[in-house]
Specification:
Length: about 150
């Protein structure tokens, strides 16, 4: 079951409530592949082999690398994350889109917060990996031997 969380953000004095839904596995894969391809062309492409060995990909590193890119190159990734967010008014949920958010969000930092929260919900294993000494796989494959 995909994770969901509800958050409230103060947007220029207005209390806005949002539901954030985890990306599906295929959406996660698509976003990560596209992000890595962008990073490979910019940040990772500028590193030597020794630096790449020590490179840890976590939420902070990813956002740090993405902020160095032209906005037009990451807009598609940004829109995928925004698509995980729903404005909650009473019992109604309205999907956030680039076309609708200007009608109720005044401060761009609210948009950044929504996208960061969507990323964190879908890719929390980056945070977990960054806090531990050992990276544990999310999926393990058992092998059996037959005689």
């Amino acid at each position: 079951m995909l994770k969901e969380k509800t958050i409230t953000i103060n947007d220029n004095g207005n209390s806005l409530q949002f539901k954030i839904k985890q990306l599906t596995a295929t959406q996660q894969e698509e976003l990560i592949i596209k992000a890595l391809l962008l990073l490979a062309n910019k940040e990772l492409g500028d590193m030597d082999v020794n630096e790449l060995k020590n490179y840890q990909l976590n939420t902070k590193a990813l956002f740090s690398a993405l902020e160095k890119l032209d906005y037009t190159r990451v807009k598609e990734l940004s829109d995928i994350l925004l698509g995980c967010c729903y404005r909650v008014v009473g019992k109604m949920e309205e999907k956030c889109t680039p076309e609708t958010v200007d009608g109720y969000i005044e401060d761009f930092r609210t948009l950044l917060t929504l996208k960061k929260e969507a990323f964190s919900l879908s890719f929390d294993f980056f945070q977990d990996a960054g806090n531990s000494q050992e990276v544990k796989p999310a999926v393990s494959i058992g092998r059996s031997t037959q005689m």
